[in-house]
Amino acid sequence: MKHLQFHSRLSALVLGSLALVSCVAQEQYKDTQLTAKHYQNENIRLGNDIARLEEENHRLKAELDASKVGVAESSYTSEIDSRLEALRNTLKELGNSPDDVSKFSVDGGYVYRVKDSVVFPLGSADVSEEGRKVLKQIAADINSQAFGRVYVRGHTDDVPVSKPETKAKFPHGNLQLSAARAVEVAAYLATQGAVDSKRVVTMGFGPSEPVVPNSSDKNRQLNRRVEIFVADVEPAGKTAEAATPAKP
Q1: CB under 8 Å to 97, separation ≥6 — which residues?
Q2: Pick the residue with more confidence: 211 or 33?
Q3: What is the pLDDT of residues 96-106, one digit of tens each?
Q4: Quick check: is 242 in a domain?
Q5: Sequential DSSP letters for 180-233
Q6: Contact partners, residue 127, CB within 8 Å, separation at least 6
Q7: What is the domain count for the chain?
Q8: CA angle (25, 30, 31) in 5-degree steps
Q9: Is 141 part of a structural domain of the chain?
C-alpha cells in the first residue's frame, strides 16, 4: 500500500511539473509568435503571392493574345493586375520605404521602421541628438493608446565591422552592434519616453534578416535599421490564464 501511495504522489508531482513547464513554454512561444508569425514572415508571404499571381497573369495574357479566351478571362486578368499592384505597394511599404521613419500596420500590432542614420552615428550605439527627438515622438505615439509588448529589433547590413575603433567596442561584430543599438533605443523609450519598461523586449539580429538583398549601397542602407514592433493589447484574462498551471 505504501508503495502504491508513493507512486501516486510521484505521478502527481510529475504531472504538476509538466503543467508548469508547459505554461512557461506557452509564454515563450507566444513571444516568438508575435515577432515571427505576425511580422517577420510578411515579406516572404507577399513575395510568394506576387510570384504566383504574376505567373498566372502571364499565362492568361498569353491566351488572350492567342484569342483563346473571351471577355470573362480578360476581366479576370485586370483583377489580377489590380491585386498585383496592391501587393507591390504593400511590399514596398514593408521592405523598401524610402522614409527615414515609417509606420505601418501588421497582423497583431504596428511597426515603426527607423533608418540607423537617423538614430546613431556611423558605427556607434550612442543615440544622436536627432535620434532622441525622433524616439521621443515615437514614445509619445506609443503611449497615446493602449498597447501590449514592445519589441525593439536592431538590424545591420552584411558588411563586416572593420574600423579598429568600432571593432574595439563591438568585438563580436554586427550582431553585437545591432543588439547594443536595440538596447539603447529601448532604454531611451523607457527612461525618457515613459514607455513601460516591463513591456519592452530587445533583440539584435545583425545582418541575418535583411528586408532587401544586400546587393547595392542603397539596399544596404535600407537593411541598416531599428524596428519597433508594438503589439496589440491582449484580451483581458488571457495572460493570467496562461500563467496559471493546469490542475493534474
Answers
A1: 104, 113, 222
A2: 211
A3: 555 789 898 88
A4: no
A5: HHHHHHHHHHHHTS---GGGEEEEE-TTSS-SS-S-SHHHHHHHSEEEEEEEPP
A6: 119, 120, 135, 184, 185, 188
A7: 2
A8: 100
A9: yes
